[in-house]
Amino acid sequence: MGxxxxxxxxxxxxxxxxxxxxxxxxxxxxxxxxxxxxxxxPYLACVPSNSLLLAAARGESWEDAVARRAEVTGRLDxxxxxxxxxxxxxxxxxxxxxxxxxxxxxxxxxxGGAASPAAAGDxxxxxxxxxxxxxxxxxxxxxxxxxxxxxSDIPAWTTAQSLSSPDLPxxxxxxxxxxxxxxxxxxxxxxxxxxTLVEAxxxxxxxxxxxxxxxxxxxxxxxxxxxxxxxxATKAERTADGLTLALADGTRIDADRLLLAxxxxxxxxxxxxxxxxxxxxxxxxxxxxxxCEVAGARGRVWAAGDVTGxxxxxxxxxxxxxxxxxxxxxxxxxxxxAIPRCVFTTPSVYGVGVVPGAAEEEVTPEEAEEGVSGAxxxxxxxxxxxxxxxxxxxxxxxxxxxxxxxxxVRAQLGLDDLGCLELYARDGVLVGAIAVGPDAASWMxxxxxxxxxxxxxxxxxxxxxxxxxxxEALETALRELAGTGGxxxxxxxxxxxxxxxELDMETPEDDAIEQHQDVVxxxxxxxxxxxxxxxxxxxxxxxxxxxxxxxxxxxx
Length: 556
Known about the structure:
With 556 residues, this protein is α/β, with parallel strands linked by helices. The protein folds into four domains: 2-38 and 78-142 and 265-327, FAD/NAD(P)-binding domain, CATH 3.50.50; 151-262, 3-Layer(bba) Sandwich (FAD/NAD(P)-binding domain); 340-495, FAD/NAD-linked reductase, C-terminal dimerisation domain (Enolase-like, domain 1), CATH 3.30.390; 520-548, no CATH class. Helix 3 (46-57) runs antiparallel to helix 4 (62-72). It is globular.
């Protein structure tokens, strides 16, 4: 028997972080994991997926992309991760844990012993009984096979299997149009597979506003993928040269392999949760408080990561830090108002906070201010949308502003009009956003901060963005939300000054003509002008030099 302050069930992103921080805080910690230390994200999910997406964008061959993927995932060897835990004072048990009573966990060794070359501090080969003061459940999630007749008889991959295989199927069906399905569709289509993406809902990314899925679907079709929406798969059959998948609408699709990206659920089976007084049905997440403590459990029981229903690696890390702080006696609560959601396709998709529900209606800025709906307004419309029922207080409404990335100079420089964003506010405070565009996560971070800090849209609308960047589109939407009018372009045109853009750019010749016209007009009004001993452009340059003292190193 081993006595520990903390026992962590699950060695994925959340489990490793809790164990490391608790161990660093002076607690004795045991971590129980039957699979790879670090979980799927670094080996079989986020990291290999992004590696392949970047390789495709660089135009690499499939063979080179697979070699690079193997390198960044450590060739599925987790011994270094186990060694880091050992250095942090954490004891790693290679096996599966089952709660036998409040305060006690029994560990059964993983089949075949250690899951990787043994590292100092690993224990394997014998059943162990562990006692604890704090228990952390961080066992992650597992794929769910959809109810398709004949599915077990055909060649099929899970997402993890596809991201660890060297095979490049000639014909591939991707089942599921969520983030993983869209990313893998782009990966395989980019490297030459004939890919068909099937999603039962009417749009891709069904959890996000429809426009995001529509823009992404158009991009995937341009990459060569076929997309079927709004009809579920019903039957799969093995054929002489592969398989056939039948959809509910009668469509039949032939392929060599099926990739299942249609859903996952918290991995909670066999943990003995009933010993803690918990009843959990398959697919159900653990109920947790804002402190990440499992509600209704006997003893001090915490949860972090996918078992809570939060399915993003960065959210798992956040919850793990909250759990570790509370275990170490540093009270902390989680705030889920600004957890990013990313799809790393090209264009990428970035969502955060609250997004509209299905019921929406368009209103003008004036009507939004007055709470009236139903009229048509200017080119960029504001919309009021009901929030999802589970998150919205009675009668709450979202005011929405949209802007196109194609209106920015940055997009024109790259000849890239694939992009759009929407911002959502309530009571003058930003509460959500979704953006589709090049590397959206890199320029939407400020919006995540604004939502988390509850900064008013009036303040945000006054933020200056560097030129030329996609941040200009944020300015457009924020000014509409704040009720300060349209884009910078229209304001400058009213004043008679043109912004530096492809649409309204003044050349040096135009500038000289305009200045000459002004001088002629002044001469007519006040009499002959005094001659200037050099031309207009030189005069302008000399005046600037006197006013601001340009030096030779000025970047302009």
